[in-house]
Amino acid sequence: MARKKFICGNWKMYRTAAEAGALAREVRAAAEPFADKVDVAIVPPFTALWAAGAELKGSRIGLGAQDVFWETQGAFTGEVSAPMLVDAGCRYVLAGHSERRQFFGDTDEAVRKKTRAALAAGLHPIVCVGETLPERESGRTLDVVGLQISAALSGLSAGEIERITVAYEPVWAIGTGKTATSAQAQEVHAALRAILRQLAPAAADTIRILYGGSVKPDNAAELLSQPDVDGALVGGASLKALDFTGIIQGATR
Ligand code: PGA
Hints:
By secondary structure, this protein is α/β, with parallel strands linked by helices. The chain has a single domain (5-250), classed as TIM Barrel (Alpha-Beta Barrel). Helix content is 42%, strand content 15%. The protein is built from eleven helices and eight strands. An eight-stranded parallel beta barrel has the order 1-2-3-4-5-6-7-8, surrounded by seven helices. Helix 1 (17-31) packs parallel to helix 11 (241-250), helix 5 crosses helix 7 and helix 10 (217-224) packs parallel to helix 11. The radius of gyration is 17 Å and the shape is globular. The relative contact order is 0.15. The structure holds 2-phosphoglycolic acid.
């Protein structure tokens, strides 16, 4: 089953609104020629969503947010809801990025609620899972990511699960310059797909599973050549239009 590759740039806590607008314009110009072959999205910080979205209007480059709260509105100081993200022009939202889990205490249960809220608002959640270095070294990688994905998707219908994207991001590879080998990535992606097949048999072959963790132009093509690696969630390299485009090109091979 051929899945269209998906390259998503997570800008993390970088770029002002003006800078984000400029970068979005560059990404649009560079990425649009590949839009038939590759889906592309950028994920700026909340404060830059409008500015980046304005530059993407009428294009096929998607906009996403980095996090979401599960209530639709209320007295929740500091939080942003899924309908608000839709209002800001988002199509995607990350749920359970390892930095949220590590630094802000996002639990599997929180990731589940965020995923549900995103789906309820019509967003496409990108559910992130990944093991730490001690977990990998003690041979627990598949158990850890299996539990994370099962928890995030528990209670969802097959029709809802169909609308998600999964991102496998080994924590030890994020921002470290260390990438999983393509064989390591493929092993985990295949295991994730097997779990998806149990949860949503009809959708398992269409759901995209992205790899994230130090993806660069020079390693993208090799990672993306694996049968179950359907795209990339790119951090650092997504902040440079040239590098990001190099990765998109890697997805066309
Ligand atoms: P990185 O980040 O590409 O800078 O390693 C990936 C991510 O956190 O999504």
